[in-house]
Amino acid sequence: MEKLTPLLERLAEKLGVTTDMLWKALLRQALLDGLVSLVQYVVVIVWTAYLVRLSYRYRLPDETNDPLDHPFIMVGGSIVWLATVALVLIALFTLPTTLAAFFNPEYWALKKVLSLLGTGY
Question: The whole model's pTM is what?
C-alpha cells in the first residue's frame, strides 16, 4: 500500500490534475459505476423473466409434436437462451465489483487505479 501514493501521483500527472482531485473523482465514479451496474442487473432480470414467461406461453401443446418439426424455433430459442445464460453469468461474476462500488468505494477506486496503470496487483 505504500506504493499507492506514487501510483496516484503518476496517474494524476498524466491527467494533469492533483492526486486529491483524482481520488475524489474516482470515489464519485465508484457510485456511478455501481448505479449503472444495478440498472444492467435489472435489465437482465426483467429479460430473463420475460423469456421464461414467453417460453411457457409458446411451448409445444402436447408430447405428440416433435421439436424437430420446428427447427427455426428450436435453433432461435437455443441461441436466445444461451445468450441469456451468458448475461446472467456475467452479472454474477461482476456482482462483487458492484458491491464494492457501493460499500467500499476506496477499494473500487484502488482497483481502478491499479488497472489503469497496469501494475498487475
Answer: 0.73
